[in-house]
Amino acid sequence: MWSETDNKLYRAFTFSDFKEAFAFMTRVADIASRLNHHPTWTNTYNKVEIWLSTHDAGDIITIKDRELAKAIDTVAK
């Protein structure tokens, strides 16, 4: 589930290992490039944390962020 905090959408994903987490990040990178909207994220071993906001709009949540979050959810399953 995505949460809204400090004008950002946030979600953490946990995978079985680093390789699975990295594969997820690769899939998200493809989507982000296609949508031309890129996340702020971190990866530590099997955990990926993602923050979404639209920098051009003053670092607030916009439809771009909601669309990217929805697309990310489809590859997280």
Automatic annotation (TrEMBL):
Gene3D superfamilies: Transcriptional coactivator/pterin dehydratase. Its EC number is 4.2.1.96. Keywords: Lyase. The keyword Lyase applies. InterPro entries: PCD_sf, Pterin_deHydtase. The keyword Lyase applies. Belongs to the pterin-4-alpha-carbinolamine dehydratase family. This is 4a-hydroxytetrahydrobiopterin dehydratase. It comes from Mucilaginibacter panaciglaebae.
